Amino acid sequence: MTITRSAAKKNQEQASAPPAESARSGAKHKTGEGAESPSPKRRKADKMKQTKIEDTVAGQEDAQKTEEKRSESKKEHKDETSAVEPQGRGESETPPSSILEKGIIYFFFRGRVNVDEPSEVNEIARSYIILRPIEKDAKLGSGAIGDAGNSRVCAIPKKTLPQSGRDRWTGFVEKAGASFQQLKDEFLASSDYQTKTAGERHTPAATPAGEGVYAITSTGRESHLAYILTLPEKLGELQREIGLKEKGSFIITTKNPEHPGPANARLPKAPEYPKEFFEEFRSLRWVPTQPKHLDYVNTQFLLVGESSGVEKALAQQTEDEKEGKAEPAEEMEKLEEEDMQRMKDLREDDSERIFADLQVDAGNYPKLKTTF
């Protein structure tokens, strides 16, 4: 077949024409020989993006597992005879938004090694605060508080509690999500141990110093731990010397574990916070305490004394006042009255009342005293 000059020219132009745009674009994504591979920068960006996604998913899974464990613990230790009446306040008594958490508070101290009954403050090794949270809309009825498996033991490595703004004590969560059985076995009881140099040593049982109601409140830039004592009915020399008041409060802040403190103030292990906590901490060393922080063992917090009492901690916030919500001070007073009544009906003396509330036999532990 004879090929014309025009046809030959057309075939030549098609053979020498550049590839289509789509073909050129597609060549970038080929991995075969001669194809352009992704640049190192792009590979690094893709890897970082994938890592970020995996970290986010892992953080969410950790938070979910922690919450599931906490829920299971609460179910396991739920006490049907509890004095706590959820939603007992009713719709007409909306809890103030500034109260982040409320509940029952117990103050204990432990004597120095081999000192079962301290006769002065200097014979105290450290103080403790036990928090037993209840629902924000709950009221207290009769009977023992009941074991919800959500108690916390907060250790204060000082002999006394902070009194004024000059007193700034660092404490930590020793136990979180604890049952009353755990408190009995691992906190309240005494223990003996052997040392190579001094032989047998004795750690005394924990001694009660007081019981009452508490609230963790937010006043905007600060969080406070406010309390009102129910027991003893009248403060004694012992309570005053260790820093307890009829109504007291501390500014409380949580330490960011990514900023380690001095070597003598570090704990062997950091709290196992979910990723979301670190996002909230940002680069800050300390943040106003949220109740959820105290649900993790080894959370470190700073207590700063407030000489003004509970006035600042229980001040009503402007928004709550506009919405007609209850005043924090009013809610605490109601809780105090309810707690006082139930504790009076629980047992004959203060020591028996406190230990009965914690479901242990008072006869096995030191009594609550008002004098050394």
UniProtKB/TrEMBL annotation:
Q: Where is this region: Disordered?
A: 1-97, 313-348
Q: Where is the composition biased (Basic and acidic residues)?
A: 62-81, 322-332
The protein here is known as: BTB domain transcription factor
- Protein's organism: Achaetomium macrosporum
Its lineage opens with:
Eukaryota, Fungi, Dikarya, Ascomycota, Pezizomycotina
